[in-house]
Input
Amino acid sequence: MTVTVAIDCMGGDHGPEVTVRAALEFVRKHEDVRAILVGIEEKIRPFLSNADESRLVLRHASEVVTMDESPAFAIRTRKDSSMRVALNLVRDGEADVCVSAGNTGALMAISRFVLKMLPGIDRPAICAVLPTISGHVHVLDLGANVDCSPEHLLQFAIMGVSLVGAIEHRERPSVGILNIGEEEIKGNDVVKRAAELLKDSGLNFVGNVEGDDLYKGETDVIVCDGFVGNVALKASEGLVQMLAVFLRQEFGRNLLTRLAALIALPVIRHFKHRVDHRRYNGASLLGLRGIVVKSHGSADIFSFTNALDRAADTVRTGVLERISLRVAEQARQQVQGMA
Amino acid sequence: MTVTVAIDCMGGDHGPEVTVRAALEFVRKHEDVRAILVGIEEKIRPFLSNADESRLVLRHASEVVTMDESPAFAIRTRKDSSMRVALNLVRDGEADVCVSAGNTGALMAISRFVLKMLPGIDRPAICAVLPTISGHVHVLDLGANVDCSPEHLLQFAIMGVSLVGAIEHRERPSVGILNIGEEEIKGNDVVKRAAELLKDSGLNFVGNVEGDDLYKGETDVIVCDGFVGNVALKASEGLVQMLAVFLRQEFGRNLLTRLAALIALPVIRHFKHRVDHRRYNGASLLGLRGIVVKSHGSADIFSFTNALDRAADTVRTGVLERISLRVAEQARQQVQGMA
Output
């Protein structure tokens, strides 16, 4: 089976310079993939000069959704944008998955408009994998929805649990809700009501978890609204960057510390690789009738290639079908539970 | 001048075992401080057996506000709690500052009830100092207010700027608002409207900042609602703990890496000390007619002592008077600007 990835080459802070180069790397690495490079032809072409183009197709799209355009504006006017055309390819079955580093709000809105939602799900959510002390955790939403109702948080939980169940073949993955205290009385009204819904959902709900629990690895899935999730994710990225600077400064302090650095280099390199957030790039937009992977806007080639890898993996493991089944099953149980 | 600190000895995860021992350490370290240990006498007494009690006073309070009590319940019924009595001491001028590691919501509510707000400020906000690549940043609110209006965020900005102006003698500290994108169209309605208020406030407003900007050090003050701030702060703490585990694992991998660890030990120790969140323990509750410092609930002795140090410093530098003046001045400018 060949996996065909539609790439929104104009999205992200760096555009084709990163996206097209990453696509070349991606196609070089995997024999079972094809990439459709969607975007303004004359901006993409220069990066393809010496490429073996047998598994690369260029699809011209005349417009670009910029980072500061509102979702409503993008959906109404950017009908020939690289983002929209790439999503159309998924809808029409010409591609298995769409990858974009573009405007998150627009990507969510256009995905929803073009691909439609799974039955029982109101809004797409961005789900990413984060490393933890004992493995990893799936967290959603990470920025697609800035205002969520308790019902939305419940749907995020169902989708997250379905995803983990599908890709890790787990029976009852645990799910927690991000809050500012473990006690039930803590938090805002939305979170409190969502916790009540989750308690009655039949899911393996572990209750409130706090910010530091994100990295403990005691919960399989953590749900939160997209505003909080996005801030927590980016704060973590910023913190890792700061710590890297501090580590460099400490090891560069004097001749003795520089010697220590030389000796500790392999260890430090291993450590840095382990916490490199670029390795975790590529979040899934869940809840749609199609697979969409969102890359970090500032992704470099290494990082964007990881998002492409993740997208291909998602297709290979049949995540969409499994999630659809699980969501339908979960929804059926919900209805039965309420009856 | 002697600084008198009223300590809520029953608050926090560990109670007197930590708070009283930290108080002993605190009094031993500083010649110019006194501590009033507030709480259940027979729980505090055992930790005082061999102490020089000349600058320690025990004040019995028969009740305890537990971590899971609602603020409304605590305020209504816990009239002889260690928290309430410690705050009364500040109100009555018997202490200069109150320090508590107890229930945050209750501390905020009781502080507000006992000490009252500064004119022009609706709610207290928790303001802490976080390390950044180039220094530090003051962030508020970190958990006192889970639902904030745009006007509250504006007030947080005024208080934060006043604090930095007061303690760092800066004319126009910069202030940003935490959001999920730098573009003006991003974020939820509250944040968007708050940004508009901030633009018209006459403050040195730099616009939206994102989660990773928390650690960049490009802004003096960052405001956010307490839910987001609390999650970001705790996520950061959890991440640092995870990285410490990873670092230990990498250095413990084999004989060679253990040798490297031995050589790199002084550097790693320096690094760990630099990012130890316990050093930053002690957040100020701003907006009140009195000084209240909130310690992390899970604080150990080292950490709680730092909160006590911070509290004493706040008194020594006359932060309350300076903030009161600045807030009044800022409010006056606001009114003029609107007229």
